[in-house]
């Protein structure tokens, strides 16, 4: 299954998983957003952590979404690009809310 198909069928469930692990504002970016994904592609999700979000939460989001969707999932935050001039802003503006 293409990640974009899994995404389109599960948007509400994806938001629920993200919010149940103390994060918010789930957005998709990458090949699934551009319509260039294939059956072997992963789903790229950008989230906003809250002050309570831990690395374990982010790992749990990735794990639960992978099981739910049946496709590989990458979960990133804007802070993943800290030190890389403008990248967090770029991806934030190149993403679409769930």
Element-by-element helix/strand order: HHEHEHEHE
> Termini distance?
19 Å
How would you describe the shape? globular
Mean pLDDT: 88
Structural class: alpha+beta
Strand order of the largest sheet: 3-2-1-4
Characterise this structure.
Helix 4 links the parallel strand 2 and strand 3. Helix 2 packs antiparallel against helix 4. The radius of gyration is 13 Å and the shape is globular. Strands 3-2-1-4 form a four-stranded mixed sheet, sandwiched between helices. The mean pLDDT is 88. The longest helix is centred in the middle third of the chain and has 15 residues. It has 98 residues and is an alpha+beta fold.
Which key terms come to mind for this protein?
98 residues, four-stranded mixed sheet
In short:
By secondary structure, the protein is an alpha+beta fold. 44% of the residues lie in helices and 21% in strands.
Topology:
Layout: H1 3-9, H2 11-20, E1 23-29, H3 31-34, E2 43-49, H4 55-69, E3 73-77, H5 87-93, E4 96-97
Parallel strand pairs: 2-3
Antiparallel strand pairs: 1-2, 1-4
Helix pairs in contact: 2-4
